[in-house]
Amino acid sequence: MLACAIIFFEPISCESVVGARKRRPFTGVLLKPIDLGDAKPRGLRESLAAPPDESDIKAHLLEEISARYIALDKFLGIHSNTENIWEHRAKALLAYEFDIPAHAVQSWEHLTRYLTNRYVPAFRLKTAGEKKRGAPLEWDHEQSAQLFADVEFLKKKTGKSVGRISEELPTLPGYARRWGRYRGKPGGLRKAYASARKLRRQNFLFELHLCGPEALIPTKGKDLIQAAIERHALQRL
């Protein structure tokens, strides 16, 4: 009976926790493995000071798992009583563990499109004349798209100017890995952003890369800036 209960629980290994710490680290109970030795006797066994039996250990295990899911939901910003809770947990853990942007886990379609665009070579876009080998240019289409999307996202969320964002971007939490080398060089980021805006108006292939094929299909009310943010921005504050 006990073996049947344990099979539904996989303890978090040290290796997976270290990987997750690329972002906000787990804390408290989410770092503590379940110790079956902490099980306490219940009922008559407690009165007689008898050791816990299998039912006591099983009850302890289920109680500890439940407490950890509640803590995990709080950590991930999920309501534990929400409908389709297991789907929400799975998507939130994917976003957390693999640094997938929030928009990509809004639906299975969004997640599939994100994963295919990122990991399946056949879904990537290559501009005309792009070299197959050799080091990429400093401001190739991908880096320009990332900068444009990050700046547009922060403009929407903070209301700050492009100049101010260019100054702060290399030191903002979560952005240093992407833009840290431009610390103290806000002019370079500001000019690169301006170039990306200009390129978007003049180069269809860049806009295609920036916003994606679906975003360029004429659709009433389609927000191409938001499409660019969803595809390329880190979306962190």
Helix tally equals: 12
**What fraction of residues sit in β-strands?**
under 5%
Sheet having the most strands: none
Query: What Rg is obtained from the alpha carbons, in whole angstroms?
Result: 24 Å
Shape: elongated
SS-based class: mainly alpha
Helix fraction by DSSP (H/I, runs of at least 4): 40-55%
Overall tally of structural domains: 2
Number of DSSP E strands = 0
Can you describe this structure?
It is a single chain. This protein has helices at 2-6, 14-20, 43-47, 54-76, 85-97, 108-119, 141-158, 162-168, 176-179, 186-202, 204-211, 224-232. It is mostly helical and 237 residues long. The chain has two domains: 2-99, no CATH class; 130-232, no CATH class. The two termini are 47 Å apart. Residues 1-22 and 132-137 have low confidence and may be disordered.
Task: Briefly say what this structure is.
Helix content is 54%, strand content 0%.
Write the layout of secondary structure elements.
Elements: H1 2-6, H2 14-20, H3 43-47, H4 54-76, H5 85-97, H6 108-119, H7 141-158, H8 162-168, H9 176-179, H10 186-202, H11 204-211, H12 224-232
